[in-house]
């Protein structure tokens, strides 16, 4: 049994999930929870991103970062304790924790990606072995270091087989898609993946700036606005969208300066349509069109975004819940699965998911140094 812990680019909190898996098949999903960050923690994480943005290397001695990493790690330990105690579980029942940490900055073009989170400290505090630093080995093998959830998506779909070809879209702070096709070989599906563009991050930043709320709840703000087509076209003119995959983004690669001057509602509407159009445009990179789209991540709860996306897509678009999956816990589940794969030396990424030069194992193991 493995626990996965994810602190995503939205910085809304820690997702924790239990998964029964051998790293190949997903036997069963255990309970999950979300431990939301306070506004103060969120703002310290934001500061951490700003400090890291000016850094040339992973320099944990940069102002405030060591303290932030300790605080973040201890909050993750609390999330583990909460998950275990609510479900009457003992740490000795858990084989491993997959600890993603918080991405401070992601610079694939410079060959580095930086997630903070002290694996040794988390292992010590929980008494459970920890795997962290999932992305470095992939980058060392020439990959983008992301996205890493595709092999988990494929494992879940292998239990499902509702369609021959499927697109799973994660609408987080950044959006990423996994295209999986069983058409050629039902036993070994073809997989490709990439970041499609910014997800909710710009809309979150815009909403926070103008309303003080962390996100556009249910897409209410966007639904009242009008989209400015010239601003949208300007945003879509970024060369990122024509680039061939594999390709990934940093949370702050796009920013809200582009919609400055629009009313709050029109800005929100334009940013929502930007997300929609980036997803529409992502289809041109698929080897063949999917039979259906399934959406996970917090953006699936934005009804305006989902409605507009459905209008623009030639096939069905549904939240992953219709498959019986948990759209809010999927990334945490994925890092539980990947931690088990890491223990077994199995690849976490493929040339077609990250651009690595061969299927690449990864992750760094930390012993708890306590008798279990
Ligand atoms: N009820 C809702 N209405 C609209 N948007 C929502 C709602 N609930 C969550 N969201 C959006 O989902 C975001 C959180 O999504 P999620 O937790 O999947 O992102 P993440 O995991 O942090 O990001 P990433 O996948 O990029 O690492 C929020 O910041 C918000 O934009
Ligand atoms: C560097 C980094 O943290 N990337 C995240 C981010 O959030 C979504 C998208 O960009 C994806 O590429 C990745 O996360 C998921 C968990 C992944 O690796 O699959």
Automatic annotation (TrEMBL):
Catalytic activity field: 1,6-anhydro-N-acetyl-beta-muramate + ATP + H2O = N-acetyl-D-muramate 6-phosphate + ADP + H(+)
Q: Quick one: which pathway? A: Amino-sugar metabolism; 1,6-anhydro-N-acetylmuramate degradation; Cell wall biogenesis; peptidoglycan recycling
Q: Which Gene3D superfamilies match?
A: 3.30.420.40
The UniProt record lists the EC number as 2.7.1.170
Name the enzyme group at the top EC level: transferase
Sorted alphabetically, the keyword list is: ATP-binding, Carbohydrate metabolism, Kinase, Nucleotide-binding, Transferase
- Which GO terms are recorded in the biological process aspect for this UniProt protein? 1,6-anhydro-N-acetyl-beta-muramic acid catabolic process; amino sugar metabolic process; peptidoglycan turnover
Binding site residues for ATP: 8-15
One Gene Ontology MF term: ATP binding
Q: Which domain of life is it from?
A: Bacteria
Recorded hits in InterPro entries, A to Z, give: Anhydro_N_Ac-Mur_kinase, ATPase_NBD
Q: What does this protein do?
A: Catalyzes the specific phosphorylation of 1,6-anhydro-N-acetylmuramic acid (anhMurNAc) with the simultaneous cleavage of the 1,6-anhydro ring, generating MurNAc-6-P. Is required for the utilization of anhMurNAc either imported from the medium or derived from its own cell wall murein, and thus plays a role in cell wall recycling.
Membership in a protein family: Belongs to the anhydro-N-acetylmuramic acid kinase family.
Q: What is this protein called?
A: Anhydro-N-acetylmuramic acid kinase
Q: Which gene encodes it?
A: anmK
């Amino acid at each position: 049994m493995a626990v996965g812990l994810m602190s995503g680019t939205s910085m809304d909190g820690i997702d924790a999930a239990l998964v029964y898996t051998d790293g190949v098949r997903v036997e069963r999903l255990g309970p999950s929870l979300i431990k939301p960050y306070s506004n103060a923690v969120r703002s310290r994480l934001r500061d951490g991103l700003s400090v890291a943005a000016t850094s040339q290397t992973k320099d944990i001695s940069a102002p405030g970062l060591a303290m932030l990493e300790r605080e973040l790690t201890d909050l993750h330990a609390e999330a583990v304790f909460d998950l275990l105690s609510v479900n009457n579980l003992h740490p000795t029942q858990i084989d491993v924790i997959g600890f993603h940490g918080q991405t401070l900055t992601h610079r694939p073009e410079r060959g580095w990606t930086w997630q903070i989170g002290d694996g040794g400290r988390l292992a010590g505090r929980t008494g459970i072995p920890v795997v962290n630093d999932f992305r470095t080995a992939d980058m060392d093998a020439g990959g983008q270091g992301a996205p890493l959830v595709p092999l988990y998506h494929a494992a879940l779909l292998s239990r499902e087989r509702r369609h021959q070809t499927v697109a799973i879209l994660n609408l987080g702070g950044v959006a990423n898609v996994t295209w999986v096709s069983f058409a050629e070989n039902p036993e070994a599906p073809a997989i490709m993946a990439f970041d499609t563009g910014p997800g909710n991050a710009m809309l979150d930043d815009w909403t926070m700036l103008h309303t003080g709320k962390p996100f556009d709840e249910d897409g209410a703000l966007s639904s009242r606005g009008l989209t400015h087509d010239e601003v949208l076209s300007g945003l879509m003119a970024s060369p990122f969208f024509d680039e061939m995959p594999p390709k990934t983004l940093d949370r702050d690669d796009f920013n809200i300066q582009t919609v400055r001057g629009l009313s709050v509602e029109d800005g929100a509407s334009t940013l929502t349509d930007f997300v929609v159009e980036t997803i529409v445009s992502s289809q041109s990179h698929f080897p063949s069109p999917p039979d259906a789209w399934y959406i996970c991540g917090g953006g699936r709860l934005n009804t305006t975004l989902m409605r507009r996306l459905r209008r623009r897509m030639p096939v069905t678009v549904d939240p992953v819940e219709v498959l019986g999956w948990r759209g809010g816990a999927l990334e945490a589940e994925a890092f539980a699965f990947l931690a088990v794969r890491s223990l077994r030396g199995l690849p976490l990424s493929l040339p077609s998911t990250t651009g690595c030069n061969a299927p690449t194992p990864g992750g760094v193991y930390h012993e708890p140094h306590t008798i279990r």
